[in-house]
Write a structure and sequence with these properties.
Strand order of the largest sheet: 3-2-1-4-5
CATH architecture of the domain at 60-132: 2-Layer Sandwich
Shape: elongated
CATH class of the domain at 60-132: Alpha Beta
Largest sheet: 5 strands, mixed
Helix content: 25-40%
Keywords: Cell membrane, Membrane, Protein transport, Transmembrane, Transmembrane helix, Transport
Membrane topology: Single-pass membrane protein; Single-pass type II membrane protein
Distance between the termini: 97 Å
Radius of gyration: 39 Å
GO biological process, one term: protein transport
Main location: membrane
Structural class: alpha/beta
CATH topology of the domain at 60-132: Nucleotidyltransferase, domain 5
Order of helices and strands: HEEEHEHE
Subcellular location: Cell membrane
Number of strands: 5
Low-confidence stretches: none
Length: about 140
């Protein structure tokens, strides 16, 4: 008996259809998620201005706040004061000068309330221009 005759050997084949489907999905995904940037440059002619420097420096009232909450207005040591007393001192320091700027030099460890008291005193005294002095860090 010849049993070999009925056993026919099929050639293995590779099915490319699932591979093509997978590559198509990956291609669509890449097309959707890719960003296309266009770099545009605008030619802008900025206006220039020339002005004279202000003839006089603005009048400043220097208020120092120490770490323990004491105040010093210009060169006068005030000590601990409530906002009303400090407002009177600021009014006296402003005198008849027009629009003085109150510059607050507060210690880094001074309480916030001490600084707020100076701001409240400036409001009571009618001094609307308040600024803070800062210290710039030196590059390492």
């Amino acid at each position: 008996m010849n049993f070999r005759r009925s056993l026919r050997r099929d050639e293995p084949e590779i099915n490319f259809i699932p591979l093509i489907d997978l590559l198509l999905v990956i291609l669509i995904f890449l097309m959707v998620t890719t960003t296309y940037n266009r770099y545009r440059e605008l030619a802008v002619d900025l206006p220039s201005a020339a002005g004279k420097a202000s003839p006089e420096a603005p009048v400043q009232i220097l208020v120092a706040v120490t770490a323990d909450g004491q105040y010093r207005v210009d060169s006068e040591t005030v000590g601990h004061a409530d906002p009303d007393t400090l407002a009177g001192i600021l009014t006296r320091a402003a005198g008849d000068r027009q629009n003085p700027i109150v510059v607050i030099h507060a210690d880094a460890s001074a309480s916030h309330q001490s600084v707020v008291n100076v701001m409240e005193s400036a409001r009571i005294a009618g001094l609307a221009r308040v600024s803070f002095a800062t210290k710039t860090r030196q590059p390492d």
